[in-house]
Design a protein that fits this description.
Blueprint: H1 4-66, H2 73-79, E1 84-88, H3 93-96, E2 100-103, E3 116-120, H4 122-198, H5 203-234, E4 243-246, H6 247-264, E5 268-271, E6 277-280, H7 282-298, E7 305-313, E8 316-323, H8 330-335, H9 347-350, H10 357-367, E9 371-375, E10 384-390
Parallel strand pairs: 5-7
Antiparallel strand pairs: 1-3, 2-3, 4-6, 7-8, 8-10, 9-10
Length: 391
Amino acid sequence: MVPLGHYEDRRQARRVRVIRGLFVLGLLVWTSLAAWWATYFYQATAAVRASKLETYHALEMFYAFHFPFAPSIEDFQATLPRYLAVAPLPLSAEAKEFPFVEVPLPSEMRHGTPTHAIVVSPAERASIRHETHEKTVQLEGEGSLLIGLLFVLNFALYRMLMSERRLSQQRESFVHAVTHELKSPIAGLRALLESLATIELPAAERASFVELGLRDLGRLDAMVGNILLSARLEAKGFQPQLETVSLDEVLARVSERKTRLFVERGGKLSIAPGAGEATADPEALETVLGNLLDNALKYTAGKPEAQITVSRAGARVELAVQDNGIGLSRDDQKKVFEKFYRAPAGEQQTAKGTGLGLFIARGLARACGGDLTVDSAGPGRGSRFTVILPA
């Protein structure tokens, strides 16, 4: 039997291939239509111009037959339509671009030497040039607009395809991560409950087992809470309780919970005193700082070290969390706050997590009227996350 996960992977891959094929087919169809339209418009414009010039040439031949019978050039000119004229030879290069018929003066017909020509009048030549120019500009303008719209449309479709593919990969990564995160505490709780049910244990050991079980339940509760909170943040359903908070008190509570975790791994957590006050939701701010410190613990291969400093810049307060972790590339810095995002290689993939911590942290910071930014000198050189809050 094929595992369900593998079947879903193959189905998703087939779907991506089908969408990509439709995208390429649509691009070819649209490009062919645009080329056909431009060619047809150009040929139609050229055909209209050629037909008009052929008509003028036929009329010139007709009037040339009657030219010898005219009393004078002036009298003959009066019989011509407005778009034809008589001009002396030699003709200008501009006049020769249009149809003409050479004729001799009526008084010199016996010699048969052409002295004049029936030509398209200067006004009509200017009108034809202007009309041709307008059609050319129209073709270039509409063609450029069509090609531009085609490019924008196909680029948007490509972005949508890539976005769907990335989102699908992130969801798949999230499902795998959540499954792994759920299995560990559930397996631990099952083993503890089975032990408590089948083995008579001293009170001290029983209390130790209960403490381990409560810790696993705490992990499950935190995971479910993060998933629900991320959904509320994405739906703009989180309403912070803003107030003026003492940053020293908030940092003291965060330090009380996290310092032991750093010390257990041989590291340390440093917090600068004298932080002052800021406007925020105290619980949300603790969650933000807690998530940043959890990341510092998870993504540091050796002894984890983190330092929290506070500075003020005008009407805002900045809490900077500097760690000595694995750092981030420029590309990862642009994506690290996306929901479910986890870097594709290295320590990021071996560390436990669902890809929601930084998404939640930035969402909470922004809900409090601030922001969360990141700066890293590159892989292996640590990261600096800055929580920005109103003063």
